[in-house]
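ugh ok so i messed up the first submission bc i forgot one of the chains. this is the corrected input, ALL of the components this time, i swear. 477 residues overall. if the numbers dont match what u have on ur side tell me asap before i send this to the collaborators (the ones from the other lab, u know who)
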Amino acid sequence: MSGEMVAADYYIPLIMFLVIGAIVPIGALAAVKIISPLKPTFQKGSTYEGGLRPVRDAIIQYNVQYYLFAIVFVIFDVEVLFLYPWIYVYASDVIPTLGGVNIAVIDMLIFIVVLLIGLLYAIKKEALRWV
Amino acid sequence: MVLSAITEFAAQEPKLYAFIIGLVGAAILASVINVGAMAVVWLERKVMGDLQARYGPNRVGGRWGILQLGADAIKLFTKEDIIPRGADKPVYVWAPIVASATTMLVAGAIPFGAVIIDGKEIPLVVANMDISALYVEAVLSLMAISAFMAGWSSNNKYSMLGAFRGVARMISYEVPMGVCVISVAIMAHSLNLVEIVQAQSIWFAVAQPLGFIIFTIALITDLGRMPFDQTEAEEEIIAGYNTEYSGIRFGLLYFQEYNSMLLGAILLVLLYLGGWNGPVIPVISFISPMIWFFMKLLIVLVALIWIRVSLLRFRIDQVTDLGWKVMLPLSMVNLAWAVAVGLYFA
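and heres the new structure output, hopefully the right one now
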């Protein structure tokens, strides 16, 4: 059913999905606004903390370890992004071979090994230790 | 022939066609997915009841409790809408809406089976993109954002912990999951979900069993189900990121979990279990792919519920360790396996 659609046209239906996906909960919230009772009291508006009165805000400064997690994740996610275009070229005939194996495969294997060394380093440095 | 007329219209007015099919498809799928998710909630409660030697829902709607979900929905709609005093109100209000919108974005690119017309297989998919596997994987990871929005804006310590855990868990399993999708794409020579299904003369679950196991575990983690539901571990952090949500707002967040469970199970069937492939059933050949698709989907769903009932919850540090130190290297092994098989045996 592709017809003459260009790649960008496939995103038009997805925008409609986004819009309808947002409209459904907004509609539900509007319906609740009409039919449900609303009697706010001071106690109802307090956050739950084991039944006691909540102490201080929950939005705090947090441990730097979380940033290390995030940085390691970014590195490896970008690596995965590099692998995606590689899917389309690794088996093509235009890329020269080395000893019967496509050079793109060898390149990518070297790339993966380097990254695994990086992962070992991150584990050794305890960047991935949960606090 | 209606089909050829549609194809002709699509060729002449591609943008209008895309707009119309998006609108119609979104309206249909929004109802199908929501009804499907209700069915999944019912299925889960019933199967869990059976597995735990109790009845499950059996009052509303006859012996099988079929109308239980309708009753629950009415209850949620008529409850008071409470927003906690300290909450960051815009973020708090938008979290369920973002959750629903991201789930629908996934639904737009996933094929929901296929039908056979005139001996030709027509997949039921709205946006049949070249990169739909990459797209689906990218949008699936957006789900962590709505969970983080809900947890952070509630201004509750337990919600905050749940949100931290959710993001840490998501980023630990995002990479192995992506590598698994790549391994599948290498064997199928395509990132298009329809072509991936068509390439599975042998199920990829058989061709790369390691990838199947890793992807299943990563999927359960992404969906936040037992044994990986640390974001809402009741015994540790009350209800995790949705502690402060009540009434319909809680209902929306809860419902999105089951929507994404349904979509995740469909993704597993498409990538590893041969999608709608199966022998054509003679008399009803028109819908025979749908029958195979739904049988596989049902088995996957029951398996997910079974896993939830059988296993105990891990600690969050065990989960992140498993993701980085075991799953990631193993997924690389699986990638090498897929390349070797793809180059020399395919």
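quick check: The radius of gyration of chain A is 26 Å. that seems consistent at least. Chain A touches chain B through 72 residues (CB under 8 Å).
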